[in-house]
Design goal:
With 712 residues, the chain is of the alpha/beta class. The chain folds into five domains: 3-158; 179-296, no CATH class; 317-461, Ribonuclease Inhibitor (Leucine-rich repeat, LRR (right-handed beta-alpha superhelix), Alpha-Beta Horseshoe), CATH 3.80.10.10; 471-552, Immunoglobulin-like (Sandwich), CATH 2.60.40; 559-711, Jelly Rolls (Sandwich), CATH 2.60.120. Helix content is 29%, strand content 19%. The chain is built from 17 helices and 27 strands. The protein has a seven-stranded mixed beta sheet, with helices on one face. The chain has a five-stranded antiparallel beta sheet with strand order 18-21-26-23-24, with no helix packed on it. Strands 10-17-15-13 form a four-stranded mixed beta sheet, with no helix packed on it. Helix 1 packs parallel to helix 5 and helix 4 packs antiparallel against helix 7 (132-158). It is globular. The chain starts with a helix and ends with a strand.
């Protein structure tokens, strides 16, 4: 194809693209781009450098090289290519701005700058006959607009101080002066973390998600998804959820590519929020044993001097599960932090798998795990471990002697592990760690003070049970691995402390210290049950509520397949996800969920012979602030041959309300008496148009997340 023919195609394309650009520029508030157009918008940052660089070269050419011009056809051809890219990038930019909830003047200045670049690029094609002086004026203006618009784009991406001159680092002193201790915890610690890691996206000039983190008032106000500091019985606070999300998750904050929070910063922010997120409490008002005080008074820098970020680090995904998380301390670090959860589900094999990354593990949290000697034998192979939490692990202090061989261990927590003065004295002798957290019913304050004097190099932090004040008791545990009830399941409850009373409910109500049944012996569940337990002890604050949902499932299908496929980002383990008895629980970020947004979830189950059924339960996850809504309806059909189906039942569920609790919930469809087929087909419907109270997503389809079906 000749150059002239290509130019004609480019010229016709510009007469389509530029009027389209003008149209969407003036009516972008009314535009609601679909998924494909949202994807197109993401090409803006990918392609924008071409028209910027090409446009600057054109400006230089028009300003300084008119005495050595290209041929007219070549000139028009190059100008047309530039104009085409400029118009395309501007359209993509407007589409992109609809996705990221940018507010303020920056986005408008950048948007209209990009539109001006596109239109001037178009005009330049037809200005060959202008006088050289006029061309130079036009080229100079074009160059200034490119520079100005590119600068505003940099501020959008990297913050308003993107090109500000760096300030010299302030020298750090080990001791805080009295003026500093008069600061509030928010002023001294929380605000600096937010300023360094969050304000570039959530400040005055860039407000992603409608959220600003530059002042207490704006933090309390929250963003488009509501309050970020408060959770409820079924869900942690949104702020904690986002900073703990996997790095590759789109909800993770800060987003991948930005400077990440260190493990210490995550611990400080999480502890501050869990403690009530006070903006007025002062540093000197914190108890010396308070976890926030200890965290905020660490002198060790989060990032080592002369740190060089690592690249091509191994993926940690294979080591993560519902009961174990592994994460790099921060972006570019090869140091790994490991946390184990839910001791009732602890598996030695999960710890054994970490042998592949043993040299990278620096922080290991095994709190509440039922550890044995074989576990300690693995832990001592993690030679670079610096911080180890063994609280409530049922170990004996004599068995911990092997830990003294760890060359880099600095901090060790053994709260709940019993010892007497002689045993602890022996353990501390020749120990290399510099901090020990203890909490026992046998030790006395006098004994511990004696050991503190004997081992001054070791900072012994004493548990709150030795203090004369009202304290909250730790949570009780449910020692029952399976959440599935085939015929029945026997429940065993436990607490580490003596003299604790555990009370429970099975009807969904909150347990109290008077009317709720007291746990004295194991009890049996035979139906779908929400179990809530709480611990009480005289002179202590009651524990938090521990909740677990049990599901009745008498029948397992012989086959199952999906008629409609889930979204590629939320496809779990395919159809097996629905019958593997592995629940996603109250965590949207696990890979245990099947997610649907643009279609119903349609599936078929089959039996080798006719099987009577009374009901089906679908376990779903709800998070209306994150666009995950309850199931709208379940329709069931039956067939004897797998070809011709007859409608059995349909159940419609109430519409979601703004203040509905988030978390896992079952949705039931009951069948008429005598229902019996070899094949059952189910259609699980999502909400096709979100309600008016989701103004930002009004009229858009909602997600449904499903992880299991139960047949009875």
């Amino acid at each position: 194809m000749s150059e002239k023919k290509i130019y004609q195609i480019l010229e016709m394309s510009l007469w389509v693209l530029n009027p389209l650009l003008i149209l969407i520029a003036f009516y972008n508030q009314e535009i609601q781009p679909g998924l494909f157009m949202q994807w197109i918008g993401k090409f803006h940052p990918l392609v924008l450098h071409f028209p910027i660089v090409f446009g600057m070269l054109i400006s230089i050419y028009l300003l300084f090289f008119q005495h050595r011009r290209f041929s007219l056809d070549t000139e028009k051809f190059l100008l047309a290519i530039n104009a085409l890219f400029a118009a395309g990038v501007a359209i993509c930019g407007i589409l992109l701005s609809k996705q990221n909830a940018y507010d303020g003047d920056l986005i408008n200045l950048h948007k209209w700058g990009g539109i001006a670049i596109a239109l001037i690029s178009w005009v330049l094609i037809y200005c060959q006959n202008l006088k050289i002086k006029s061309k130079k004026y036009l080229a100079a203006g074009f160059l200034l607009i490119i520079i100005g618009s590119a600068h505003k784009g940099a501020q959008l991406t990297h913050g308003v101080n993107a090109l500000s001159f760096p300030e010299p680092a302030a020298s750090k002193t080990e001791n805080k002066n009295s003026a500093e201790t008069q600061l509030t915890l928010y002023e001294s610690t929380i605000s600096p973390i937010l300023a360094s890691k969050c304000i570039s996206c959530h400040g005055l000039d860039k407000i992603k998600g409608g959220l600003q983190l530059n002042s207490p008032e704006n933090i309390i106000k929250g963003g488009k998804d509501g309050n970020i500091l408060k959770g409820d019985a079924n869900k942690t606070a949104m702020f904690i959820e986002r900073i703990h999300a996997p790095l590759n998750d789109e909800k993770h904050m800060p987003p991948d590519g930005k400077t990440q929070l260190t493990s210490e910063e995550i611990a400080i922010l999480s502890s501050w929020i869990k403690a009530g997120s006070s903006f007025t409490v002062k540093v000197n008002e914190l108890q010396k044993e308070d976890s926030l005080y200890l965290l905020t008074n660490k002198s060790q820098p989060a990032v080592k001097p002369n740190f060089v970020p690592k690249s091509n680090l191994p993926d940690l995904k294979e080591f993560n599960s519902n009961y174990c998380t592994t994460n790099y301390l921060f972006n570019g670090s090869d140091e790994v932090e490991v946390n184990f959860f839910q001791g009732a589900f602890y598996d030695h094999e999960n710890l054994k798998k970490l042998g592949k990354i043993k040299d990278g593990i620096v922080n290991l949290n095994m709190q509440g795990m039922p550890l044995k000697k074989e576990d300690l034998d693995l832990i001592v192979q993690f030679k670079n471990i610096q911080k180890l939490n063994l609280n409530g692990t049922k170990l004996e202090i004599a068995s911990l002697e092997v830990l003294k061989s760890l060359p880099n261990l600095k901090s060790l927590s053994i709260c709940g592990i019993e010892f007497d003065e002689a045993a602890l004295d022996k353990f501390l002798d020749h120990a290399k760690f510099t901090e020990l957290n203890v909490w026992t019913q046998n030790g006395t304050e006098k004994q511990l003070e004696k050991l503190m004097s004997k081992y001054p190099a070791i900072r012994i932090v004493v548990g709150d049970n030795l203090e004369d004040q009202v304290l909250q008791i730790s949570n009780p545990t449910i020692e029952q691995d399976s959440l599935i009830i085939p015929n029945h399941v026997d429940i065993k409850l436990k607490h580490l402390l003596k003299g604790v009373v555990i009370r429970y409910t099975t009807d969904g109500t909150e347990p109290d210290s008077i009317k709720s049944p007291e746990y004295k012996e194991n009890f049996r569940l035979t139906q779908n049950t929400v179990l809530k337990i709480k611990a009480y002890r005289t002179g202590w604050k009651s524990s938090d509520i521990v909740q677990r949902t049990y599901y009745k499932s008498e029948i397992h299908p012989d086959s199952i397949y999906l008629l409609t496929q889930p979204d590629p980002k939320h496809r779990g383990n395919g159809s097996k996800t629905l019958i593997d008895y592995d629940l996603g629980e109250n965590n949207r970020y696990t890979d245990k969920w099947l997610g649907y947004q643009n279609s119903n979830m349609d599936l078929v189950i089959g039996f080798n012979q006719t099987k009577p059924l009374n009901s089906v339960y679908f376990n779903a996850y709800i998070e209306t602030g994150g666009e995950i809504f309850p199931i709208e309806s379940i329709t069931a059909h039956g067939s004897d041959d797998g070809k011709t189906y007859k409608k059995i039942a349909e159940t419609k569920f109430p519409a979601a309300k703004k203040d509905d609790p988030n978390g896992a919930k079952t949705f039931t469809c009951n069948f008429p008496k005598g229902t019996a087929y070899k094949f059952y087909k189910f259609s699980v419907s999502n909400v096709k148009k979100m309600p008016v109270w989701r103004k930002d997503r009004k009229g858009k389809p909602a997600w449904i997340f499903v992880d299991e079906l139960f047949l009875n």
